[in-house]
Amino acid sequence: MNLAVIGTGYVGLVSGTCFAELGNRVICVDNMTEKVERLNRNEIPIYEPGLEELVRKNKEEGLLSFTTDIGGAVRHSDIIFIAVGTPETETGAADLSYVYGVAEEIGGTLDDSYKVIVNKSTVPVGTAEAVERIIQKRQPAAAIDVCSVPEFLREGSAVKDTFHPDRVVIGAASDRAAALLNDLHRPLTEQIVVTDPRSSEMIKYASNAFLATKISFINEIANICDIYEADVNAVARGMGLDHRIGPKFLNAGIGYGGSCFPKDVKALKYLAEEKEYHPSLLQAVNDVNEQQNRRMIEHLVRIFDGDISGLTIAILGLAFKPNTDDIREAPALKIIQELEEQGAKIQAFDPVAAENAKQIIDADITYAETALDALKDADAAFLVTEWAECKALTPTQFKEQLNRPVVIDGRNALDAKALKAEGIIYHGIGRK
Questions:
Q1: Could you list the active site residues?
Q2: What band does 78 get if pLDDT is binned at 50, 70 and 90?
Q3: How far is CA 183 from the centre of its chain?
Q4: I want to staple 432 with a disulfide (CB 3.0 to 4.6 A). Which of 2, 35, 193, 231 is the partner?
Q5: How does strand 345-349 pair with strand 365-367?
């Protein structure tokens, strides 16, 4: 098929590249000339394992191209994906200005051939209908169907998730559009859910809100475990063996971050409140997560008898999760801010996200070249992101490099027994 993907962020770039790998002819569009020029030089603006190789391969085979010409891309395509950002506004609502702006441009460039327009971005319920109205206002005779096919990609494994999805959700108001999108996605999976656009849009929000709920729930349990000296890892294992619950997303820590969960929980809450329904559970999920990143600092303050001013803290990891350079809503940002406010100094390491952090974090931070360098002469170490390089540090290395043998594990990813056996003061989140 001939596809256009408008927007070359995580969703657009990964989706477009993977569709090309399946044999489709894909034109990726972005309004940032410099970004398009970089992509045409095979320079990938995001860190995503396996993506650069696929971009290079499919460009060489003539299946993938990058342009700023949205009109040409739309006219040469059967299916047009809208994959631009929907950032959070001050109210918590999703900002749809980019989506609507693209809809205006599409409406101004359509010819008389049939097109399927697909919202790939995470959007509020009713957005497909709004996009269709915008396009038809610009082009009343347009032969279009506007559909919703939400993404369920995890940063750091987005390529794998695209090729091996748990399911594909297609929200379409016409059988013709549903059949075309079904054919496009059939090589990926047989687990295809076809529904109406509004339900499809809600499936995306509900899925992310549920996963965020599991994370906040186990973090709440971890905090109670801290009080009663129980081990949340054992609790999570015992819970996860119940097939009604399952083990995934029951890893206690310092809360969720990234571009999806925080934004989507707030956006769904806003949608409910806009119709005068007050979602107490969603509010609680958000509240627990907002507070959870402070747990590491609370442990540190207890260890040092209430005063951490003048201490040097090694921050191991800045990205919100491993295998990505994304620091949007990363717990590290708030942790560093709080440490600085309490007078601590920061030595930080991240294998890929350090440059992004430098652009955002307004703090006096020493950036280390390696995880081991970050530990040198620090008074305590915080494991904030469970990068392989950080988890590979041995108890001996912690003890030899640190001024004081204090390790606070925000991801419960280190070997507590081995660290304690080395004489290290180890605190996890909800660990006995």
A1: 260
A2: very high
A3: 28
A4: 231
A5: parallel
